[in-house]
Design a protein that fits this description.
Strand content: over 45%
Number of domains: 1
CATH topology: Rieske Iron-sulfur Protein
Largest sheet: 4 strands, antiparallel
Oligomer: single chain
Number of strands: 11
Helix content: under 10%
Strand order of the largest sheet: 1-2-11-10
Radius of gyration: 14 Å
CATH class: Mainly Beta
Structural class: mainly beta
Order of helices and strands: EEEEEEEEEEE
Distance between the termini: 25 Å
Mean pLDDT: 89
CATH superfamily: Rieske [2Fe-2S] iron-sulphur domain
CATH architecture: 3-layer Sandwich
């Protein structure tokens, strides 16, 4: 699925009493667009995000490998997590923690919720 095929309006902004934005829930895609075993990538402001459907559970992580800036959307999704196509480090989808070298720095993970068959990601 191409990035431009997905409409992503802002769903909710959480702000402080002085108007500072703490987080935003953005619509990433329809649940039906992300089948089991598939991934969808998208950009939101300066964030490059990867959505993964592993056995029906939806995860959101940073899309760029922390070791060598490779795009994880071209990697391999498996029970162990997402494997970088460049140096084969595998990242746990729930925690972002690399399971093997050469990557040592975890991926950022994002909260996900599903409402009315839409997938939302909380960005901070």
């Amino acid at each position: 699925m191409k990035k431009q095929d997905i409409e992503r309006p802002i769903y909710l902004k959480v702000t402080t009493s002085i108007g500072e934005i703490l987080s935003e829930w953005i619509k990433a895609c329809k649940l039906s667009q992300l089948k089991k075993g598939e991934m969808i990538d998208f950009d939101y402001k300066d964030k490059k995000i990867l959505l993964s459907n592993l056995n029906g559970k939806i995860y959101a992580t940073d899309r760029i490998c922390t070791h060598a800036d490779a795009d994880l959307s071209t990697g391999i999704l498996s029970e162990e997590g997402i494997t970088c196509p460049l140096h084969l480090s595998t990242f746990n989808l729930q925690t972002g923690v690399p399971q093997n070298l050469p990557a040592e720095v975890p991926l950022k993970t994002y909260n996900v919720k599903i409402e009315q068959n839409e997938i939302y990601v909380e960005v901070k």
